[in-house]
UniProtKB/TrEMBL annotation:
InterPro entries: Ribbon_hlx_hlx
Designated name of the protein: Ribbon-helix-helix protein CopG domain-containing protein
Annotated GO biological process: regulation of DNA-templated transcription
Amino acid sequence: MRSAARRYEYRLDACGPVRGESAMAGPVSIRLDEHLRRDLEEEATARGVPLASLIRDILATAVRDARRQRIRESSARVAAYIATSAPARAMLTETGGPHSDQA
């Protein structure tokens, strides 16, 4: 017999900057299984923050890390292209390199 897993739904307010302050956008609804909910609640309690704040912090960190990873991957693709392309290397040399102050 299969037991029905309980699902929990939380509403989060998304944050965004407005004139240097954090403004709340519309809520986002996510579904958590019982184990994940319990783990998140335990972590929130250990940190002394509300569950929604913990989830916002975790998501913000994950998005920032993902963005940085995409930038690193893109930079690696550009470097690989320059390494295999004589015209690209010549252009880079002419412009003074990747960190040139020349426009």
